[in-house]
Amino acid sequence: MNKVKMSIFIFLLMLGVLGVVLAGCSLGNNAVDEGPNKKELVAAVGENEKQEGENTEEMAGKTAAQYYYTANEGGSISKIDAATNTIINTIELEGSVHNVQVSPDGKIIGATLVPETGGHDEEDESHEEEGGHGEGNSGKALFFDVESDELIKEVEVGNHPAHIVFTENGNFAVVTNNEDNNISVIDMASYEVVNTVETGIGPHGFRISADSQKAYIANMGEDTVSVVNLETMKEEKRIKVGAVPVTAGVTSDGKTLVATLNAENALAVVDLETEKVEKIEVGVGPAQVYVDVNDEFAYVANQGTKDAPSNSVTVIELALRKATAEIITGKGAHGVVTSPDNKKVYVTNMFEDTVSIIDKGQNKVIETIEVKGVPNGISITE
Q1: In what order do the strands lie in the sheet with 245-250?
Q2: Does the CA dihedral 342-206-102-213 come out positive or negative?
Q3: In tens digits, what is the pLDDT along the chain, a chain of 382 residues?
């Protein structure tokens, strides 16, 4: 009996071990089966995250749409999609819009408006007359929301406002009052004129240094550029540059000033430390000038007159102090700006109501679009 009992015990023990082994195999098989399922699950989650990322990028792209604007003398502002070069809105206004400028944060578009009783007759001929813009035309600076196009504020400035420029720190917007021989400084927190600073005769186009401290203003009625200190709110000095300076620009390092000399068919290049002036020949009747983001090139729009319009942009390589290209655009090339990515140049052609889009690498026009109403100033969002 003992032997029989022992045999039964051993038999049952073996069955138990076998059961455990079989159970283990079953668990192992389940684990093996779970592996692909887990991989599939991870892959699915990863795909969802990827899709979500793409959707986020797409939404960000839509939110950060890029626009450029033209100030139209006929009484409007054109808002143009930079991706498609199509006009997506026209803001109609009563009066003549001479200049537009996008704020540094890309949220506001500023514009200068001359009432309908005025006009902008000097654009039909040249910029050679003293002072430039007619008489007694009290004007306004207008501020619009970039996304909604809604008017934020209307600010009364001086007689015949010409250009508007924001300080890089966003604290002020500055307007040149061509007939008053001064500038209006607008506090962007309150939208109020907080200072009026005297300049030379016929202040017109200008730029502000990257540190927001100084404005360099071309005085059309004389041969100077006013240097205005925006901290003391006083004119520091006037630099003689040449006959009928229409628009000025300054490099980002604050070392070099440029100014178009309408009566000399030249660009003045000024060393701001020594005030030494070099003159470079450009096309006939230069109007605006724009220095690209790398301070490498200055682009000069050659307007001419309505009876004898010019139709080109002169490219100046600043390091060499020489013209390196002449790009044929449309009649009456006036306003000019480069894109933030430094790949394109946009030029308004006043006497044929168009904008030329230039490829900087090729130095040639790659597209021309129609913008009605005598497009003048131009600006682009970052």
Answers
A1: 245-250, 256-261, 266-271, 276-281
A2: positive
A3: 444 444 444 444 444 433 433 333 333 333 334 444 444 444 444 444 444 444 443 434 334 689 999 999 999 999 999 999 999 999 999 999 999 999 999 999 999 999 986 444 444 444 543 344 444 568 999 999 999 999 999 999 999 999 999 999 999 999 999 999 999 999 999 999 999 999 999 999 999 999 999 999 999 999 999 999 999 999 999 999 999 999 999 999 999 999 999 999 999 999 999 999 999 999 999 999 999 999 999 999 999 999 999 999 999 999 999 999 999 999 999 999 999 999 999 999 999 999 999 999 999 999 999 999 999 999 999 8
Those residues whose C-beta lies under 8 Å from the C-beta of residue 275, and which sit 6 or more positions away, are 239
Tokens encoding 350: 């006043």
Asked if residues 311 and 348 have their Cβ atoms less than 8 Å apart, the reply is no
Other CB atoms within 10 A of residue 74 CB: 14
Check: pTM over 0.90? Answer yes or no. no
Q: How distant, in Å, are the alpha carbons of 92, 348, 367 from that of 352? A: 20, 9, 15
Cα–Cα dist 378/102, whole Å: 9
Q: What is the DSSP letter of 84?
A: T
